[in-house]
């Protein structure tokens, strides 16, 4: 045992100090030397080795204290005398040393209370810790601990402060009351720290405190604060209050309260059998914000219930707002459940939906669900022919690449078709066709007014499709003939006929007029 004890003492930095040296240092004329000696004594008292005695040794040495003495008795008078030193720093060090050796000296208490109110930050923080460990649950002590907690905001300080506050909260409700004040802080980080402290301190939580935490959880503008409050309520065994509050707001609250409840459901991943009926009603709510929040919650929780999927499919088909359709499609992709109905609806949406945002989300959900097959490839190829939105085109190419649906041969044909469509839809060509239609329709109206045509037997009425087809075929034929005539040059010498001899008349062939002209 002596060898073990010797080995333990050797690893301590102050083991080489002697009692005579410490007594000389405590009586030195320099303040720094006296303070260093007091610190050495306090460190030795705190870090002294303690021996765990086995059951056999305890039976043999019954009544003996297994721990080593804090400090030699010869040092005690000098340390107590330091409490009355003319230097305030020496007095503070001596007071801390008295707490280290657990002497409960009244003079040391008075020094620490004074340091708590008037000394610098380091001394007041040390005084607050010593007084808190002794059980002094007073307002100055708690205030100083909270000040350190909210000023430093590091893990070590938070752990130490919460440990002290937990020790004091068993004696007074002042700790919870002062933390409740911090829940109203304009700094969102302070509100988070207060929530974490409340969850670590424990103890009895008043009804007003519960209501305040639930209010923060529902209505605080910062997402991190809401999450911290929810976690604190869970660690404080107040999950039932959270569930009941969400259920009431979801079923009986106004539109804003329903949105807040749905946001909380999404963030806490909370869903029970009691919440499900009210949750399903939110998909058919009159307010767009409620339906949007319901879609986001369904996607975040990845609820695969058939009734939830049916509500999402109904929104995609019937909701009048394109954003709700997009959020419902996104939720289907997040849920990850594939069915023939889901596949049909997504392919229809990416092909025929009017809004680019809906088509974009449909393409992303198809990729998320990893839909494969010739039908998906054919739908993408059809969409590439007519799609003019850059974001949708980019997403479709990305999806085809990820799903291995690319086909180079088809890509060349698609590009050729798109070029042809672009040529045919030029502005000048469309204007010419419109003018031609107007001209032909005007001519038909004039003929109908002035010329009577005997209807032929079995003749069908001319429909619009046939009329337009004949009109444009005639235009194309005339255009082609003119191109051929211009491209093939005729003979240089043509036989010219006079206009007089080439005109058609109502005269009979072979007759001569008064001028002797023969009509053909």
From TrEMBL:
Organism, scientific name = Sus scrofa
* Entry coiled-coil feature ranges: 400-427
List the keywords (alphabetical): Coiled coil
| GO MF | oxidoreductase activity
Its encoding gene is what?
HEATR4
Highest taxon of the lineage: Eukaryota
This protein is called: HEAT repeat-containing protein 4
Identify one Pfam family in the record: HEAT_2
